[in-house]
Structure formats: C-alpha cells, structure tokens
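> example.struct
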C-alpha cells in the first residue's frame, strides 16, 4: 500500500487549496472527496472576498481575512499560469448601504476602526452612492464603501483548483470516508472502497466534518447552514459595477454582466439543499429593496450550498495541528469564508505539515491556542 505524505479529506476550496500548497512544498498528496472536487459549498458561493465586510471588530479574524485577501492577486495569477483558467479576480469594492441614522452611525464606527487598521473605508452620502450605482433604493441615506474588497468567479475558481490538484496529487472522487485512524506510525483513512495510508491527515470536509472529528475525539461540532442563492441578468443599462450589501443580502456583479444574489441562512435545514419558493421569494424581495433598478431582470438559475459553521463559542475557523495527535491537521469551520480564506488556509496547513512555527496571527486559530474554547 502506498503511504502518502498527506491525505486531505475534503475537496472544497479549502481542501484543494491545502492539497495544492502541500504538493508545492514537495509532499506526496492524495485528496479524497465524497463527491466531485469543488462540488459542495465551494461551488455554491457567491465568491465575495469581503475581508472588511465580514469582520465586526479589529480582531484576529479580521486580520486573517485581510491577509488572505492580500494573497489573491498572486493566487489568481499563479492558477492562471498553472491551469490556463482565469478565476476572474476583481477588486471592484463593496457598498454597504445605510437606510437609517442608526445604520449610518454603526457603519461610520466600522469605517474608523478599519481606517485605524490601515484599510480603505470611505463614507459616501446618498448622492455619491447613486452616482456610483444609480439603481440603488431612493431611501438609502449613505453607504460605507470598501474599495479593496472584491470577488472571484467561483465555478472558475473550483475548476482551476481542481485542474491544479489533478496535475500534482492523487485524486479520489466519489469516496465516502468512513473513518480516520492511527495505525502505528501511520494514519489510515478508510473509505467505502479502499484504505489510504499517510504520514499526515488533513480534515477539511466542510459540513461533513463532524462524524470524523467525533470519532477522533476532537470536541468540535460543525453544522451545515443552508444558503439559497440565484443569478439574474439585469435589464439593459442597469448593470452593477460594485457589490451591494444591504441587511444581510448581497448582490455580486460578475464579469459577464450577470449578478449573483444571496443568501438565505437556514441552520435548521440540515443537509436539505432543495430550493424553496418562500426562501427565494424573500431573497428576491430583499434584493429589489436594495437595488430596485434590477426589476425586469432575467432570471437565470437558483441553487443552494451548505456552509460549515462551528457551534458553541469557537465559531471562527480552526486551522492547524491537533495537539496530542501527531500528523492530524484541521481546517474546519470556515462558514461563509471558505473562498476568501482558501489561500491562507493552504499556507497554514502546509506550515503545520512541515512542523514550522506558526506566524503570530495564526495562533488565534491554531487548535492548541483554542483549547479553552473546546472545553479542554
């Protein structure tokens, strides 16, 4: 039986970016996925790189998101050179709308701490917002503009990562991993069809990580959070140039002129990915409240994804080596930020695999440093 330097369980954006980085470091790598690489949450995402949008305080999570966002220009260029696939990375900015004075005060507070952290964040009055995006609602009184946040075309990202991984790693698709066990000096990853041996195992199975973690004695629970989304083609002359965010709904323009709109947040749905009339209707109503100029746009398609969220107090992702289990590396709980955090997660996983000291920023996500939150 071949013994790999590393087996990555899970082939989403996080798992594929980790496998690619491990292979680039010279390790022999196998990637095992229950379906097709990139076939779950990664391919369902809107592709926002919202490092500033997603953060609510100048904490470690914010700085991790910023660090990964900063990696994207080189990440996109290297994938293009390696695979010939353009992931359509753009730094088009995000407009976060305010409808009330309370909204405006909260956004201006966010602007101040982000500027203090060295980020670009600008307050725009209503007229300036409509100069930027003329289709936004008339009752918008202003917006926080985040010019450094951008987006990628997620199907292209998944295709590029898959092509890179297929070139450099052993790929096993359609293989449900039943157990991960320590067997002497090696790990054994037991699938429904075969067994794979490795010096190291990376758990990056997204919303399907919990059974494996539980069997390994890792006190983390990852729950799926269903998100429904849809895509439209705006009516003539109403194209968006920037992402618009309003009260939890985002409208993300793509290079071909289409707009991806998301997303519902349904933790009670479990693993049910069916689109529902009420979910999509509510989402469409919120989108049109934000940008009425999209009325009359052409409906293209709808879909859903299951985002992996850690339960309890430890809701930020956990990335790094699990203490007391040599060779076991976690990359779980990325929730809405798997695409954004894929580049830096790959770097962190590779450092863990090579036994390198973590960078100071990473320590907040390194399992050993988070032991208290796990009840250990």
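> example.seq
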């Amino acid at each position: 039986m071949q013994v790999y330097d590393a087996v990555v369980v899970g082939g989403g954006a996080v798992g594929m970016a980790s496998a690619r980085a491990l292979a680039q470091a010279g390790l022999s790598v196998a990637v095992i996925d229950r379906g097709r690489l990139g076939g779950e949450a990664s391919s369902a995402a809107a592709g926002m790189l919202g490092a500033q949008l997603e953060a609510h305080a100048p904490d470690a999570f914010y700085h991790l998101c910023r660090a990964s966002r900063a990696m994207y220009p080189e990440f996109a260029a290297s994938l293009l050179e390696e695979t010939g696939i353009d992931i359509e990375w753009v730094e088009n900015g995000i407009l976060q709308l305010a409808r009330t004075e309370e909204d405006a005060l909260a956004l201006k507070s966010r602007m101040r701490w982000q500027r203090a952290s060295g980020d670009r964040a600008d307050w725009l009055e209503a007229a300036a917002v409509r100069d930027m995006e003329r289709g936004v609602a008339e009752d918008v009184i202003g917006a926080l503009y985040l010019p450094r946040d951008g987006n990628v075309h997620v199907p292209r990202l998944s295709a590029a990562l898959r092509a890179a991984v297929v070139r450099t790693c052993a790929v096993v698709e359609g293989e449900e991993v039943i157990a991960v066990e320590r067997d002497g000096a090696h790990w054994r990853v037991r699938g429904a069809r075969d067994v794979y041996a490795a010096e190291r195992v990376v758990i990056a199975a997204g919303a399907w990580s919990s059974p494996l973690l539980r069997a390994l004695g890792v006190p983390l629970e990852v729950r799926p959070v269903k998100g429904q989304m849809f895509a439209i083609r705006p009516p003539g002359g109403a194209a968006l140039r920037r992402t618009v965010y309003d009260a939890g709904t985002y409208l993300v323009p793509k290079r071909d002129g289409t707009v991806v709109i998301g997303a519902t947040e349904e933790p009670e749905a479990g693993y049910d990915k069916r689109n529902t009339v009420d979910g999509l209707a509510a989402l469409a109503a919120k989108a049109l409240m934000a940008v009425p100029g999209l009325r009359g746009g052409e409906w293209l398609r709808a879909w859903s994804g299951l985002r992996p969220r850690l339960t309890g107090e430890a809701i930020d992702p956990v990335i790094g080596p699990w203490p007391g289990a040599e060779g076991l590396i976690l990359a779980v709980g990325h929730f809405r930020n798997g695409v954004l955090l894929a580049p830096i997660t790959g770097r962190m996983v590779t450092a863990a695999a090579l036994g390198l000291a973590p960078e100071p920023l990473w320590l907040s996500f390194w399992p050993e440093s988070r032991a208290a939150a796990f009840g250990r």
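> remarks
The chain has three domains: 3-65+154-221+312-374, 94-147, 225-307.
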